[in-house]
Amino acid sequence: MKKILLIILAILIFAMMFTACSNKNSLSTVGEIEGDPQEVPLEVDEEGELEIEDIPKEIDLQALRPNEAGEIMVLMYHHIREPEAEWSRTPDNFRRDLQELYENGYRPISLVDYATGSINTEVGYTPVVLTLDDGNQNNFNMIQNNQGDWDIDPDSAVGILVDFHEKHPDFPLEATFFINGGTPFGQAEWVEYKLNYIVEKGMDIGNHTYTHINFTNTTAEKIQEELGRLNNFVKQYLPEYEVNTLALPFGSKPKDTSLAPFLVEGEYEGEKYQHIAILEVGWDPYKSPFDKAFDPSRIRRVRASETKVDGVGIYDWMKALDQGGRLRYISDGDANTVTVPEKYRDKLLEEIEDKNIRNYTLD
């Protein structure tokens, strides 16, 4: 009997030692990944479960001087072709624009990410949004090579963007192509391929109305037809894709302001549409998405041109943003945190959903 009791006691002691070792190993693992578990701030969610609080990434604030209250350029292109003109950028000048943006610390983000404040630009860099209107063939052209195969025209906008990204992987392949109905990008036999290619590459398709209508004098029915028809047209080729951005043709809006809500959402032939960003023509950089005055239905754009821009073209604004004539957005590299110098804190919303707000004092 005594022998049996000793065996049972030995088993209990062994079990206790094993449990202690297991717990120690678990805490050690947490400590290695998350830091000392006793120092990680914890909070209880609505269901009574503990959550680890998001902690802003540590960066050298004085050296990098992030300012996410600054302005962002939404660049507006139309044709990419020869010769250079008011609404045309030559292929070489388009390449130069991308190179200048790259060398001056700009990195493309999607229009959707800008409008929703989902900015994950590398720390110390400035987001920029690239947009191209009208779905011109020179935006995305297919050409036949000497072997009889078809290639993307290297002098088209898509060809240039893809090539630049391949040479500079840290310059994201982000752009929104605002198209009309019919035969976007020309070449009817290639429409499906082109639309799918753009989306598969991570770029976007935007609504520019079906017929490029001027909205100044129109009706609720016509607005919904123009926007809904284009939306339904795209779904023929991309049934799972959501067209949720709009560039206003001619920058036009209905004189009857009661019709403005139909630019945001509506319905046509049983299919609903909704736009989370509406772009004007505009002449200057627009506000941070965290700015109190930011309005995603009134986003202004910058003419990506050097012809007849009256001092408000792409290079005029790059100079102003670089020299302090306008407040430049500088990313903190943390999509979950909005960082601003203390003196600009009043520009921001009091609270920003799902974001930490970090203020600091500039030396």
From TrEMBL:
Molecular function per GO: hydrolase activity, acting on carbon-nitrogen (but not peptide) bonds
GO cellular component annotations of the record: extracellular region
Keyword Signal: yes
Entry keywords, A to Z: Signal
SUPFAM superfamilies registered for this protein in UniProt: Glycoside hydrolase/deacetylase (SSF88713)
Superkingdom of origin: Bacteria
Domain NodB homology: 173-257
Compartments in which it is found: Secreted
Keyword Signal listed: yes
GO process annotations (BP): carbohydrate metabolic process
Name this protein carries in UniProt: Polysaccharide deacetylase
Native species: Anaerovirgula multivorans
